[in-house]
């Protein structure tokens, strides 16, 4: 009888230690900065959102959704820079955002989705990345000059994205 009570007690201790440890080990790397980035993004603080999304992809280089939102935050920051006449910065951010979309698309093509469970939402993310990459390629063919990029930024859209999760 005492032996079985000891075994039950030991199991409870193990469960109390191992289960939380296993759950924390299974949590998504990059999730905390990703969620902070979404919060900053939704509040219009695109500079801080970029920092958080960059941290997320630094912690988890396969985090395709973080790359998508990093790209969009850079585009919005580029628009702000263009509106304020900071053309070189706007051009740089635009180019970086295009690279981020390419990375996101490659990861999505490989099946790396972490926070987008719905197939339809995944298709929207893929199409958005493809459209952004195609428009960037078209603009690069026409003119890679910063002033032309700034002009395009003033009239471009972010694309159609599912709500962040």
Helix run count: 7
Please give the CATH architecture.
Alpha Horseshoe
Q: What is the share of helical residues?
A: over 70%
Percentage of residues in DSSP E strands: under 5%
Number of folding domains?
1
Class by SSE composition: mainly alpha
The low-confidence parts are 6-26, 159-165
Give the H and E element order: HHHHHHH
For the record, what is the CATH homologous superfamily label?
A: Tetratricopeptide repeat domain
Describe this protein's structure.
- This protein is mainly alpha-helical and 165 residues long.
- It has a single domain, classed as Serine Threonine Protein Phosphatase 5, Tetratricopeptide repeat (Alpha Horseshoe).
- The chain is 78% helix and 0% strand.
- The chain is built from 7 helices and no strands.
- Helix 4 crosses helix 7.
- The protein starts with a helix and ends in a 10-residue tail after the last helix.
- 32% of the residues are buried.
- The C terminus is likely disordered.
